[in-house]
């Protein structure tokens, strides 16, 4: 009897040790709780965190990733070429005078809480944005005059002028029964966690700075996703992300920098992809925050267009493209990326701000900015305030830090001093919103239709009333052209207006557009298939403007994956058995012993 | 002795940096190398991802690292000595107040406090010095106070007081000279800690990103994908330099401590 007991004890000890080491190894990889074995989980690693799940507030790309999977548009962008394709509206029709649109809402769409999606939800969402002038979306639908809902499945919209804009309006349709309880004041602070939408996935967990987890919605009108859940993990370091991809902890690494990307190129089982996306990075200037925010403190010299033009001459974009991006992208010029080929304007050779430090110095000399106290920094013509600018870069994005080292050097050579500071995105957003900055480096991910990116330079978008303007640029002529381009239905004609707008922004230089970068992506092609580039053939693998990839994604071969899954769970069970079995025996033995003790005592 | 030699070597390197490497090589604009070139004749320690010579960076980095080390230590010593002597000399409620204040700084974990301070104050060289200075003085203060307490009771201090010497005279003429050797020995040890702290804070991205120190080189390497690209030459030179300098300071510090610290001397 006693021997038997000691044997069990030894077994239990061994099992415990084994369990400890095993558990220790598992604990090193912080994985979202609840990702139980047997579920088909697709994990993305990225270095960017989301800011909010409220579509009226969020500005960061990961938040929009959630919205694309949670919500639907009235009209989607097709996967192949981004043309209008059925979303919540099955079909639509424009009247002959071009002013009246009739949308037929599909009857098989439901909200995640089971309520049906009706035409009233569309009416509610659009009306709310129009009434509250919600900055994130208002410019998409500002031409709407009236919205009528003759029955649950029909929306009739009349516009003030003929426009095609309703087909490219990226407005997430929100459920009326949830949002009607949120007042206008609350809309800015409402957490919307988890968001109730009509899309193929819903958020079940969000740990700020760590990850979010979404579960598939089998009832989705576009067909049930083939994966069970999708996890987005945030990595603070790209090396860690690369290692996680190699180790199989994540299946997809998004928006990589050139070095980590290059290191993955030769790895078996991993495929790399340079996605063509409408994206650019810019150095933005505070060109007049004081007009809307009294206590803003932008540098007065930046109000002078000549100073900004001189700085545009002092940035060698080719060098930044070659050295920082290691060539993954193209040189930037105007605010509509070449991705939107029909609308991108490329300034003529002689109109470009060529890299020319002498020219930059000459412009500044001529404008009266001279170094009067001999410290190699120019002073303002009258007040004598030195040209010393705060230059904010993103601590979450290494390219911006590296770029700043080049730019600072060039600016020093034209007598402009910069104080580079790396801020996290939230702090930087706040600084911009309060107008307390001089210059910054950030990027945009514009829509395929240029309307959105053009809107950010309109006067109405300036904080605190607007949301998107980060340069506080305001120009009457520009605003007029912006309204004009909305109503021109002919692509070529509209393009002419949009060319003029880009030219104006280029010359006024509230931005120095540095480059149009490619999105460097890498994924485990030995495990996953079914990625749908949007648009074909070389667009974003994760479908930048829709949920196509996430609905279509599946393991490489169903059979192999199932085996692996089973093997995985069997393996787990062996461990559970090894640990739990002996422990159970010990527990039983102790129980018996105590019984015995009690009996003895009795 | 070995400590002194290593220290001397790095001091010379730091002082002679302009002779050893062109400062243009610090700016990526002036860099001539390729992306992450392994060590070669032109670049004995390879290049970083912006094509700068890692050797040049390490040489110039020694300046900032040592400078931050020295200035932060000086600051820490001044605060520590003033509080320690004042507390030990005056005694009473003033001592209690000052020592509780010191304890308060002593029990707060250094790194979180330094990180919070650095992120509030912003990323600049001066702030890093300030942060390290005001987080590393409590140890010195306690040490100095103990020594002051013992010096204060010596007969000649009593005699001087009987002759009518004021507080200021007593502190500067009698106490300070007697605690100074202890402060000095402690200084050398704190420099090592300060240099390590600078590296830590820079590595965490709280240093001035545009002043190259050993810590910032490591930070760039960490964020620039040195590990996944296998670019060991980017990590090793600053790392080894830090280890050597800290080791050298510690060795010198212990040696001095043995000579100057009365308690150790008695042993």
Annotate the secondary structure layout:
The complex is a heterodimer of chains A (602) and B (267).
Chain A lengths: L1 H27 L12 E6 L14 H10 L4 E3 L6 E3 L2 E6 L5 E6 L13 H14 L5 H4 L2 E8 L2 E6 L16 H4 L21 E7 L3 E6 L12 E6 L3 H10 L4 E2 L4 H7 L5 E6 L4 E6 L19 H9 L3 H7 L5 E3 L25 H10 L21 E7 L3 H16 L3 E7 L1 H9 L5 E6 L6 H5 L20 H12 L3 H18 L2 E7 L1 E6 L3 E2 L18 H5 L1 E2 L2 H44 L1
Parallel strand pairs in A: 1-10, 1-11, 15-16, 15-17
Antiparallel strand pairs in A: 2-3, 4-5, 5-7, 6-7, 8-9, 9-10, 11-19, 12-19, 13-17, 13-18, 14-18, 20-21
Chain B lengths: L1 H14 L1 H4 L33 H37 L1 H16 L2 H12 L3 H11 L2 H15 L2 H8 L4 H37 L10 H10 L2 H4 L2 H29 L1 H5 L1
Could you explain how this protein is built, in words?
The complex is a heterodimer of chains A (602) and B (267). With 602 residues, chain A is α+β, with helices and mostly antiparallel strands. Helix content of chain A is 35%, strand content 18%. Chain A folds into 3 domains: 3-70 and 184-274 and 519-600, Periplasmic binding protein-like II (D-Maltodextrin-Binding Protein, domain 2), CATH 3.40.190.10; 75-176, Dipeptide-binding Protein, domain 1 (Alpha-Beta Complex), CATH 3.90.76; 280-517, Dipeptide-binding Protein, domain 3. In chain A, the strands form 5 sheets. Chain A has a 7-stranded mixed beta sheet with strand order 8-9-10-1-11-19-12, with helices on both faces. In chain A, strands 14-18-13-17-15-16 form a 6-stranded mixed beta sheet. A 4-stranded antiparallel beta sheet of chain A has the order 4-5-7-6, with helices on one face. The longest helix of chain A has 44 residues, at 558-601. Chain A is globular and about 70 Å long. The two termini of chain A are 22 Å apart. The model of chain A is unreliable at 1-35, 560-575 and 590-602 (pLDDT under 50). Chain B is mainly alpha-helical. Helix content of chain B is 76%, strand content 0%. Chain B has 13 helices and no strands. The model of chain B has no long low-confidence stretch (mean pLDDT 88).
